[in-house]
Write a sequence for this structure.
């Protein structure tokens, strides 16, 4: 099956923002937007929902802390109970510094892994490069051709009004 895309290439961030807003206003499906650096307001212009990654980080940090406290209790109370100066084996204040360190480590590492998994950035995976200049000084907006309802002339007009440097059409073959 073939998937068609209309690609607009821009030189300024104001142009990519206006093209993205206009494309979304006219009901076009935005496949992706590439930029050499973060553009303020572009996520809202695309229509992205807020990231759930902070919640993932928080929950995985809590999981790491809970596992660490459980391991500490199990080690000192069940696996290797040692009476040190008559102190109780389940003294939580003694576990706090290491628990915090393990929580931060677990949250950080597992959040990076979750991000790579959700973004489908497997080792060796290559993202298609829409334009060579996107890593240097160009901004790229990719609209998905959704079939007969896709008005290519209107999309090209939006790109031209937004000062597109280049407009091209690509066909991607999927298996």
């Amino acid at each position: 099956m073939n998937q068609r895309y209309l690609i607009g290439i821009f030189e300024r961030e104001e142009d990519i923002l206006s093209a993205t807003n206009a494309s979304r206003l006219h009901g076009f499906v935005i496949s992706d937007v590439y930029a050499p650096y973060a553009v303020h307001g572009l996520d809202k212009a695309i229509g992205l929902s807020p990231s759930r990654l902070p919640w993932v980080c928080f929950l995985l940090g809590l999981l790491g802390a809970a596992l660490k406290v459980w391991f500490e209790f199990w080690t000192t109370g069940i696996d290797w109970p040692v009476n040190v100066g008559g102190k109780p084996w389940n003294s939580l204040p003694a576990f706090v510094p290491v628990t915090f360190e393990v929580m931060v480590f677990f949250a950080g590492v597992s959040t990076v892994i979750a991000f790579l998994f959700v973004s489908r950035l497997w080792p060796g995976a290559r993202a298609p490069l829409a334009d060579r200049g996107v890593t240097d000084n160009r901004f790229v907006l990719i609209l998905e051709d959704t079939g007969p309802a896709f008005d290519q002339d209107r999309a090209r007009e939006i790109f031209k009004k937004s000062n597109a440097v280049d407009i091209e059409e690509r066909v991607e073959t999927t298996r």
